[in-house]
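Hi support team,

I've been running sequence recovery on a batch of backbones for a student project. Most finish fine, but this one hangs at about 90% for roughly twenty minutes before it completes. I'm not sure whether the input is malformed or the queue is just slow. I've pasted the structure tokens below so you can try to reproduce it. Let me know if you need the job ID as well.

Thanks,
M.K.
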């Protein structure tokens, strides 16, 4: 499968991409731990089958201090012992927020309550935006056949400037 288009080399694509990146910068500057942000984005990317985003967020999570064990187990977080209750709540929100078409209820009240137990209002806002933005990014990557394997941590630093 060959890439269809590089959105960042297209004038309009790059203009929109900078604005998209600015939202990501705001999220990254929140008090929601960066490693957790990366785990949430990795899980959504796995569900959506976006190779570029799986590559990106695996490498960024490693740069943020995540261990190989936790990265290997994020796809099976329910059946593993390496995630905290707070992380489990965030991963459940990521899955339910990603699988909207698969779950007629969307994000369940039980998942929402668990998230609210562990995170303050600003962190919840950041978490909701993380889930929404990564799902948008996954769709962009899948539509244009952006392939994983070439991402280098930090390669987009300063993009939103």
């Amino acid at each position: 499968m060959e890439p269809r288009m590089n959105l960042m080399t297209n004038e309009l694509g790059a203009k929109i991409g900078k604005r998209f990146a600015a939202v990501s910068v705001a999220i990254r500057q929140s008090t929601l731990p960066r490693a957790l942000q990366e785990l949430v984005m990795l899980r959504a990317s796995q569900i959506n089958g976006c190779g570029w985003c799986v590559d990106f967020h695996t490498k960024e999570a490693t740069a943020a201090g995540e261990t190989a064990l936790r990265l290997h187990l994020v796809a099976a977080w329910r059946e593993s012992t390496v995630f905290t209750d707070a992380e489990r709540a965030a991963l459940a929100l990521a899955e339910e927020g990603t699988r909207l078409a698969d779950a007629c209820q969307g994000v369940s009240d039980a998942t929402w309550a668990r998230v609210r137990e562990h995170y303050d209002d600003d962190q919840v806002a950041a978490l909701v935006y993380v889930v929404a933005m990564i799902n948008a990014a996954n769709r962009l990557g899948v539509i244009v056949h952006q392939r994983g394997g070439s991402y280098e941590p930090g390669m987009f630093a300063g993009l939103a400037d």
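--
Follow-up from support: It reproduced on our side and the slowdown came from queue contention, not your input. Residues 82 and 151 are 26 Å apart (CA to CA). No action needed from you.
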